[in-house]
Amino acid sequence: MLHPLLKNAKTLIIYFSIWVLVSGIHFVILWKLIGLSPNFSLYDSLASNFLFFLFSIGVWYTLQYGIDNHNSFYDKLINHTLTGITVITFWLLIVYLLLNLNTNISYHGFLIQSLPWRILTGVVYFSIIVMIYYLIVYYEDIQEQIKQKALLDNLLQESRLNALRSQINPHFLFNSLNSVSSLTITNPALAQDIIIKLSEFMRYSLKQGDEKQTTLEQELYHLQQYLEIEKIRFGIRLKFIQNIDDDTKVMKLPVMILQPLVENAIKHGVYNSTEEVKINLQSKIIDNKTLIIIIGNDYDKNAVNKKGTGTGLTNISKRLQLLYNNDDLMKINDKDNYFEVTIKIPQQ
């Protein structure tokens, strides 16, 4: 683990500034309260505090063993106590060697009398430094845990989206292959053309793994490929009408968000009808920040409904909730033989 005080200049400057402030306070106490001369007070303050500043930088490498490992509380207490005794002892020895270079007899007497409170000062200094190191390490651990949690949340979200896509794509592929299977005998050329369109559409759907968003214009282009495949099955029964606001064409939305909605309209509207069924798609923008897409279809309520699992609409709702962290982005309205789904896409 990198030294928490040396890994960037800003932290070291702040830490050094704190020691400068402590030295200033020490200087004022010796000068104003103890009564030493300004020169002795400055010399004593700088020698004592600057040395402990240097010791405190080096002491990390000893404390790191007690902070990082998983030893018991008593093992850590012994480690820190022995380190503290060693550091304070060497600090006092060097400080007194430096301060005794002064030949003033009265100052020598002060040095002897001040030994108890210097020891106490060393204990306080060391305790505060240990606490600072622990706080830094725990803060960095918390930040790392937050990053790891965010990463895991993103991975979980991505895995959920992948699971939803794995349900949508095979479902569509199964229906599409059924749509063109009969053409391989009756109209091979048309079957080949449809398979090419299907291949291009599936390639687009796989872009979800790399590109989470596309433009509405691109989404509609590939939706038309899907509809051309489905028209092989339903012929004139399927009529698609779109009313697209030009300003919305460049707006972003999740890839493959419209196809399941149109597929649901076909399954529950066109499939059960012998007459033409209109599927309407409308887009607009509100508040200059939200794309609104409305897909509706009429249906015969007296027809036998095709049973389904509801995977399409459920997946759309879940995808929108996961992508935008909002569970109020899809509304369903079923009234007067008209089924309508409205989705809102926030523009980020």
Provide the fold topology.
Layout: H1 9-34, H2 38-68, H3 73-99, H4 105-113, H5 115-181, H6 183-186, H7 188-205, E1 213-215, H8 216-234, E2 238-244, E3 252-254, H9 259-270, E4 277-286, E5 290-298, H10 311-324, E6 330-335, E7 338-346
Parallel strand pairs: 2-4
Antiparallel strand pairs: 1-3, 4-5, 5-7, 6-7
Helix pairs in contact: 1-2, 2-3, 2-5, 3-5, 5-7, 5-10, 7-8
Give the low-pLDDT segments: none
Query: Could you give the count of β-strands?
Result: 7
Sheet/helix structural class: alpha+beta
| Radius of gyration, whole Å | 37 Å
The spatial strand order of the largest sheet comes to 2-4-5-7-6
Helix content: 55-70%
> Quick one: biggest sheet?
5 strands, mixed
Query: In the CATH hierarchy, what is the superfamily of the largest domain?
Result: Histidine kinase-like ATPase, C-terminal domain
Top-tier CATH class of the largest domain: Alpha Beta
Spatial gap, N to C terminus: 38 Å
CATH fold assignment of the largest domain: Heat Shock Protein 90
Our count of domains comes out at 2
Order of helical and strand elements? HHHHHHHEHEEHEEHEE
Overall description:
The chain is α+β, with helices and mostly antiparallel strands and 348 residues long. It has two domains: 9-149, no CATH class; 182-346, Histidine kinase-like ATPase, C-terminal domain (Heat Shock Protein 90), CATH 3.30.565.10. Helix content is 65%, strand content 14%. It contains ten helices and seven strands. It has helices at 9-34, 38-68, 73-99, 105-113, 115-181, 183-186, 188-205, 216-234, 259-270, 311-324, and strands spanning 213-215, 238-244, 252-254, 277-286, 290-298, 330-335, 338-346. The protein has a five-stranded mixed β-sheet. It has a two-stranded antiparallel sheet with strand order 1-3. Helix 3 (73-99) crosses helix 5. The chain is rod-shaped, with a radius of gyration of 37 Å. The chain starts with 8 loop residues before the first helix and ends with a strand. The model has no long low-confidence stretch (mean pLDDT 83).
